[in-house]
Amino acid sequence: MFFEKYQSELIISAFLLVLLFVVRIIANTLIKKLGRKSGINDARIQLICRYTTVTIFGLWILFEAIIFGAEFKDLALVFSSVFAVIGIALFAIWSILSNITSGIIMFFSFPYKVGDKIQIHDKDFPIEAIIEDIGAFQLHLRQDNGDLVTYPNNLILQKAVTLVQKDAIDEGSDAV
């Protein structure tokens, strides 16, 4: 019977599942506290929590394979094949990956928040606008004339940015 044959592996798997669930809860709690302390939008906090959950799930699959006796050479073959396919796919969509990575970096170190008015110093297309949203792929910027500009996350990290007015949305609504 399956349960008798793999009893110790199932017990270890149950312990691992509980352990990784606790790690996920702790990591998500810390991310939420850090995000709220920094004044980061809840949607961005949820996005980083999802990335954490996917990473923990990947680790769980790897550990389960080791627990049930997969050989290192077999795992190396599977992972190298999977990473080769993913690498080719990501090379084709490297821009999307760089924007997601930039979004993660911006979560932890971007000094501007939703509502701030910023100026992006771009030689070809300078922008002065209020940050409406910071998404996984781009910032949504509202210019004074009402135009909505979407600016890729990877470019915002490469350009000089100046804070023109802190929390311009709140200050503008108080004046009305």
Order of helices and strands: HHHHHEEEEHEH
Percentage beta strand: 15-25%
Structural class estimated from helices and strands: alpha+beta
Largest sheet: 5 strands, antiparallel
Which regions are unreliable across 5 or more consecutive residues at pLDDT < 50? none
Q: Give helix % range.
A: 55-70%
Can you count the beta strands? 5
Count of discrete alpha- or pi-helical segments spanning 4 or more residues:
7
On the 0-100 scale, what is the average pLDDT? Answer: 85
Radius of gyration: 22 Å
End-to-end separation in angstroms reads 74 Å
Integer tally of domains: 2
Major beta sheet, strand line-up: 4-3-2-1-5
- Mass-distribution shape: elongated
What does this structure look like?
The radius of gyration is 22 Å and the shape is elongated. 62% of the residues lie in helices and 17% in strands. The protein folds into 2 domains: 91 residues; 65 residues, SH3 type barrels. By secondary structure, the chain is α+β, with helices and mostly antiparallel strands. The chain has a 5-stranded antiparallel β-sheet with strand order 4-3-2-1-5.
Outline the secondary-structure elements.
Layout: H1 2-5, H2 7-37, H3 42-67, H4 72-92, H5 94-109, E1 117-121, E2 127-134, E3 138-143, E4 148-152, H6 153-156, E5 160-165, H7 168-175
Antiparallel strand pairs: 1-2, 1-5, 2-3, 3-4
Helix pairs in contact: 2-3, 4-5
